[in-house]
Amino acid sequence: MARRRPDSPAAAGPREQPLAPSESDLARRAILDTVARIPSGRVATYSQIAWLAGYPGRARLVGRVLGGLLEAGANTPWHRVINAAGQISLPTFSEAHREQKRRLRAEGVVFANERVSLRRYGWQAGGGESPLID
DNA sequence: AAACTGACGTGAT
DNA sequence: CATCACGCCAGTT
């Protein structure tokens, strides 16, 4: 399905600029790319992702970007991102919240009193390379 | 344009 | 553990 001609001569329009990706697009890409690297069965915090993606101190930005995934369903493991307290940040009684918990549990992540131990399941924490400390 | 609103985090009380 | 105050900042009102 060729939905667009990469090089339609002058028929397309006056200015055919490369359309430089906006800063927000670059950020979104970097963030999603980083989230995609979180191993199954592990979790990462918003601030951690922000930092690794090159936007230290921008935890909220990560949340904003991930929020866009809910509707536009993507294959990004957004459920592996939680807050610094080890809790799911989505509204407690929301469908999305339950979905996130469901997915994490399916990967073996254990919840204790609505919280996840970052020590044990945190990405690149607890023991470096060790799969899981148990 | 100003105010409000968050899938946040951290430090102080 | 619960609140509050900030710092941060993009999208909505």
Overall pLDDT, averaged? 84
CATH architecture of one domain: Orthogonal Bundle
Cα end-to-end separation? 49 Å
Query: What's the total count of β strands?
Result: 4
CATH class of one domain: Mainly Alpha
- CATH topology of one domain, which one? Arc Repressor Mutant, subunit A
The helicity comes to 25-40%
Taken from the alpha-carbon principal axes, the silhouette is globular
Taking pLDDT < 50 over at least 5 consecutive residues as the criterion, the unreliable ranges are 1-15
- This entry's quaternary arrangement is single chain
Element string (H = helix, E = strand): HEHHEHEEH
Task: Provide a compact summary of the structure.
By secondary structure, the chain is mainly alpha-helical. It has helices spanning about 25-35, 45-55, 60-70, 95-105, 120; strands at about 45, 80, 110, 115.
What does this protein look like?
The chain is mainly alpha-helical and 134 residues long. Helix 1 crosses helix 2 and helix 2 packs across helix 3. The strands form two sheets. The protein has a two-stranded parallel sheet. A hairpin with a 2-residue loop joins strand 3 and strand 4. The chain contains five helices and four strands; from the N terminus they run αβααβαββα. It has a domain of 90 residues: Arc Repressor Mutant, subunit A (Orthogonal Bundle), CATH 1.10.10. The structure holds a DNA duplex (13 and 13 nucleotides).
